[in-house]
Amino acid sequence: MGNNEPIRKSTQGHGPPASDIPDKLYFRIGEVARLCEVPAYVLRFWESEFPQLRPNKGGTGQRLYRRRDVEMALRVKSLLKEEGYTIPGARAVLKSEFRQKEPQLSLLGDTVPIPKSEAKQLRTLRRELEAVAAILAKPIGKPAATHTAEAATVHAMRSPRRPPIPKTPEIPFD
Length: 174
What we know:
This protein is mainly α. It contains 6 helices and 5 strands. It has helices spanning 29-36, 40-49, 67-82, 87-101, 116-137, 147-158; strands spanning 7-9, 20-22, 27-28, 56-57, 63-65. It has a 3-stranded antiparallel beta sheet. A two-stranded antiparallel sheet has the order 1-2. The longest helix has 22 residues, at 116-137. The protein is elongated, with a radius of gyration of 30 Å. The termini are far apart.
């Protein structure tokens, strides 16, 4: 970590207000350990306990933390050290916070107002997708078989006998 790098305050609000995170793309585990004021082995342990804390690994296998990973490590530290949560309790808090940040939109679209022009496009797209699904659901080649014909086909598939190989016409040699 160089002395001439720009520094800005954490924008998450959960980490300690006095912690400064350098403005760069990736951090090594030693840098994150210094920022969080915990040993590197603690960060590795937290990675195994908190699925939200998953740094990338470079080609050499070295952990490369992004800013959001550093902020997550600071949040974990805050929950465990300052707020007194146990590891399962902190895991539950982070899980609930994650759910609140990114609510899943309803598939029916009834909770989000959609402009009329977009609604018309979505209805058209839905009809086209349903048509494609209907085409894909049809069997290839022959028209839909009856129930008894399907049962015979299934029985033939399970039968160990193989159909005879058709003979090729013999070509006379002169």
